[in-house]
Amino acid sequence: MLERKFLFAPGPVLTDKRVKEAALAPDLCHRRPSFEHVYGEVRKKLIRLFRATEEEYTTVVVSGSGTSSNETVLSSVVGDGKKVLLITNGVFGNRLKDIIECYHLGLNLLEFEWGTSPDLGRIETALKNDQDISLISMVFQETSTGMVNPVHEVGDLAVKYNKMYHVDAISAIGGEEVNVVRDHIDFCTGVPNKAVAGQPGVSFICINKNAYKKIENTVPPRNVYLNLQHHVREAEKHNQTPNTPSVVMFITLNKALDVLFEEGQEEVIARYKKDAEIIRQGVRDLHLKMLLSDEHTMSNTVTSVFLPEDKNIDTFISTMEERGYVLYLGKGPLLEQNMFQIANMGQIYPQDCKDFLKIMKEVLA
Ligand SMILES: Cc1ncc(COP(=O)(O)O)c(C=O)c1O
Q: Which of 261, 278, 302 is the last residue of a domain?
């Protein structure tokens, strides 16, 4: 029997009962109007989620986790002989690099130390000096550290140098102020199973129509399942998908978006901010060190914390789980420094954070 735990991890997250119940909808044939109706509703709601307009943007849902949407964008929008300017400062920026390398795309790589904000001067110099760059790519919230990157400032540079702009907002959408219009984002990816508080299994992309026009017929297809042009054509023509979609996950995503809009996008963000403040104050009270110190770059949903050197991190994480709270181990070099992460995404409320801190205090003692 699976036991209910508090998921203080950056996805999957606790979901509303109505989202789970939505999965009990009648079985649908995906090639009939009943499915097209659901997909049409989801696509409209995603426009709202990304603060876009239907005149300027379109959306698609890909049956696959967040990586599949990033791969759909990166494999489909960079022309032969062109390059991606990739800005990375953590695990998930590096994952974008893996995709770019797998497809043998041109790459101009700007790496920054994990937990430090990308330097805009270096980004501008790269844009000035490398005429082959056609796309800038960056993660919105680098989940491996909890840092929010300068998405708007890089968007301004994309406009200044006339480049397309891809932002991986997988852990940001629903939890940060993601606004594709304000930030000049052409391709923005997200998932339901993090700050949107839905179920895992699909991911989605918000696409600027002008940028899309430029690449629709000029970039050769490099794969079958993850071809952006194929997804957009089917969606725009009749709210359809190129292949058999994960039907139930489209239905639960539709419900998760309703639940989110019912609380209100700003209200959800405000709740996440409040949760994070409570958690961070509790962490300070316990004299634990955090990875990030600048409030302006700390996200609303992920807090990276170092466990004292004399404590075993695996024992700590499993004891917390026995007490009902699922936390996340840090990654790579940060795990070597005994770092773990506390996330407050999904159906987590201030009182849950206070209860969690009480248990963490007991476990640390
Ligand atoms: C910023 C970011 N990008 C990409 C991914 C990969 O997403 P998925 O595991 O859904 O493929 C994650 C997962 O946590 C993420 O946080």
A: 261
* Structural domain of 301: 6-11+265-364
Annotate 197-249 with DSSP letters as a single string.
Answer: ---SS-EEEEEEHHHHHHHHTTSPP--STT-HHHHHHHHHHHS--SS---HHH
Structure tokens at 249: 């996950």
pTM: 0.98
Q: Which amino acid is at 334?
A: L
pLDDT digits (tens, 9 = 90+) for 188-245: 999 999 999 999 999 999 999 999 999 999 999 999 999 999 999 999 999 999 999 9
| Mutation test residue for ligand 1: of 92, 139, 202, the one with most atoms within 8 Å of CB | 92
DSSP structure string for 44-77? HHHHHHTT--TTTEEEEEESS-HHHHHHHHHHHH
Q: Which atom of ligand 1 lies nearest, measured to the CA of 139?
A: 1
Residue ranges around ligand 1 (CB below 6 Å): 10-11, 65-67, 92, 95, 139, 143, 168, 170-171, 191
Q: What is the largest CA-CA distance in the chain?
A: 62
Q: Which residues pair with 127 in a beta bridge?
A: none
Contacts of 295 (CB under 8 A, 6+ apart): none
Residues 59 and 77 in one domain: yes
Query: Which tens digit of pLDDT belongs to each residue from 96-150?
Result: 999 999 999 999 999 999 999 999 999 999 999 999 999 999 999 999 999 999 9
Residue 107 is given by DSSP the state E
